Sequence to fold (191 residues):
Amino acid sequence: MLITVANNKGGQGKTLLATLLAQYLASNPENVKKVFCLDLDRTQQHFIDNMAKSGLSFVSGLDSAAKCPLCVVDTPPSLDDDVIRAVKMADVLVVPVVPCKHSAQNAANIAEIRERRDGLRVVLNQWDASLAQKQARSFLNDRGFRFYGIMPKYKRVAHNIDAGLDWRHDVFEEQTLEIIGILKGLLSGPA
Ligand SMILES: Nc1ncnc2c1ncn2[C@@H]1O[C@H](COP(=O)(O)OP(=O)(O)O)[C@@H](O)[C@H]1O
Ligand SMILES: [Mg+2]
Fold:
């Protein structure tokens, strides 16, 4: 199973969500599949650095990723051939969006590249319910997108991930459960 996290805009939460998903899957006793990771971002390999600290295994290319029982793929803020392939090949395509006019359009473009909506999981990230964010949400709503999670700012979790720690480190249980709920929603059957 290939889980790709993509949005060709930077700062949307791709690496954050890829890390959350991989760490969650690796620590979930219900998941019997070994978790592999692939970082297609060649300029800053934050994802692979995080995953190496978590002791997870990684692969070096999409062809190997496709053969893994379970692989989480983080992507750069660009649309090169590998990213387009990873978007098309994904069983689950997670698209984080910090809602604003342009990021909503970007998310719509990524979905179009896939040429199908099954497996598409749009997450509104760093949600603050401002007017601009609500307009971006309406833009996506009007185009038939549904949302698989609305994440506010999780300061501590983001700090943990940026510092290469387990995301749950010193995080209140209520927030941990909320995030696990979102991750489960992302991984649940096709919609
Ligand atoms: N929900 C969130 N709450 C707080 N900080 C966040 C959240 N999502 C992302 N960030 C922070 O925003 C920055 C960009 O996120 P990142 O996952 O690196 O984006 P991308 O990989 O799409 O470029 C990082 O410092 C990350 O920790
Ligand atoms: Mg990134």
Summary: Residues 14-15, 41, 46 surround magnesium ion (ligand 2) (CB under 6 Å). Residues 173-187 form the longest helix (15 residues). The chain has one domain: 2-187. The chain has a mean pLDDT of 94.
